[in-house]
Backbone:
């Protein structure tokens, strides 16, 4: 990843949740996770739209891992002796499916999975159960791979087409604006006597700062987000949303879009066998061709 685990961590100063006293609170938190892990299975949709076979193989593994994470949170609910509750609209919005491959990698994987990963770290540090913490830690390590994949794919896309930067940055800024509104919503409901929850406003601020660093390291922006003025931020968000709506109306794009089934014959994955066939051809050795 572009950020280390230490850079993405937060010091809760030893504060812990109490499984009995905080049952409802922990059930609410786990319910947001559960929804996110279920929507993570959407990566199955992107396998056909992957730019190469290796990316498709990664997504297939990720789909299985997301289903494993669902099992982890089922164990979490059993540990609590609680049932899932309805997901918050902000989490539903942040988990909404992207319109194209570049948006999926940048928004859902690099940024979205980055949010999830930091909350994983927090839960691991703040629950007092070693067995469950180890299960969550194993899931977090898989999430680290998802974030890294999103980062690398986003940087490849930006290097290939720098014009993507403005649209993707605008969508990132929109997501962060929503997160900040969510921060205020949570801030009004925080129990100032709770050892963990009273630190949540500062913790959410750390998530936003960390995301800012990730955007800079991916090359999405050349300056900290704090240096963007209100008008510039508004223009980027408005432009990105307008293009997003316009793209949804362009039904013909889906007929022109090349999928993996169209591109795999020229994929690096097949380069070795293609080269072997060329060598045999040059040596005069017959190469069996499909009918």
Residues:
């Amino acid at each position: 990843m572009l950020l280390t685990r230490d850079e993405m961590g937060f010091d809760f100063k030893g504060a812990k949740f109490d499984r009995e006293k905080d049952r409802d609170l922990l059930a609410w938190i786990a319910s947001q996770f559960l929804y996110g892990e279920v929507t993570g299975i959407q990566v199955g949709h992107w396998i056909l739209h992957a730019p190469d076979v290796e990316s498709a193989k990664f997504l297939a593994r990720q789909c299985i891992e997301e289903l494993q994470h669902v099992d982890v949170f089922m164990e979490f609910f059993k540990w609590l002796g609680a049932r899932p509750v309805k997901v918050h609209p902000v989490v539903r919005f942040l988990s909404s499916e992207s319109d194209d491959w570049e948006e999926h990698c940048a928004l859902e994987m690099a940024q979205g999975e980055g949010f999830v990963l930091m909350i994983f770290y927090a839960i691991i540090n703040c629950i007092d159960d070693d067995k469950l913490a180890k299960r969550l830690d194993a899931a977090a390590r898989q999430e680290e791979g998802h974030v890294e994949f999103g980062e690398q794919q986003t940087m490849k896309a930006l290097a290939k087409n720098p014009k993507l930067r403005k649209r993707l940055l605008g969508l990132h800024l929109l997501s962060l604006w929503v997160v900040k509104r969510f921060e205020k919503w949570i801030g009004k409901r925080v129990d100032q006597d709770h050892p963990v929850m009273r630190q949540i406003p500062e913790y959410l601020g750390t998530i936003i700062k960390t995301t800012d660093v990730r955007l800079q390291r991916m090359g999405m922006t050349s300056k900290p987000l704090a240096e963007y003025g209100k008008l510039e931020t508004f223009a980027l968000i408005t432009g990105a949303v307008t293009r997003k709506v316009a793209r949804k109306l362009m039904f013909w794009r889906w007929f022109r879009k090349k999928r993996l089934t169209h591109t795999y014959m020229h994929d690096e994955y097949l380069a070795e066998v293609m080269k072997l066939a060329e060598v045999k051809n040059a040596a005069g050795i017959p190469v069996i061709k499909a009918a």
Observations:
- Residues 281 and 287 are 7 Å apart (CA to CA).
- Residues 5-282 form a domain with the Ferritin fold (CATH 1.20.1260.10).
